[in-house]
Amino acid sequence: MLLRFLPLIALLATASLASAQAPSFLFFEAEQAVERGQLKFLIEAVKNADASADVFHSDDMTILQIRHNGGLSEEGYRTAIQNAGIALRPGTRTPEQLGLNVVDPNRPPVYVATGNETADQARYRADVEQWNAAHPDQVLSTTPVHAR
Fold this sequence. Notes:
Blueprint: H1 2-20, E1 24-29, H2 36-49, E2 54-57, E3 63-68, H3 74-83, H4 117-134
Helix pairs in contact: 2-3
């Protein structure tokens, strides 16, 4: 009787472990740009606190991104970063605050493949025609690059 439920229990255990392993991201803002020499100590401090965490930075070296699997709390990562000699501004930043998920309305049109090529090309052609009307000095072809 118990063997009947064993596959279900195994499936639930696997699903819970998989969701626990999904990476999360934290964004910290440094008071001033992180020096290249400090970067090694920063990565080492974070790795010592959580070996599975990864450290990334913005081009101007003021935003620090930590990819983690829940090994530490936000405060734990903050402490590790500050122990590396980097002063942080209070709190964390969201991707929206940093402009990561914001699409610039003034950017040129982009071909988006959804699987319906006819609709994709029609949408792209309409977007390009609208762009060309608004930007006569930057005229784009209505044929997507991959179709030329």
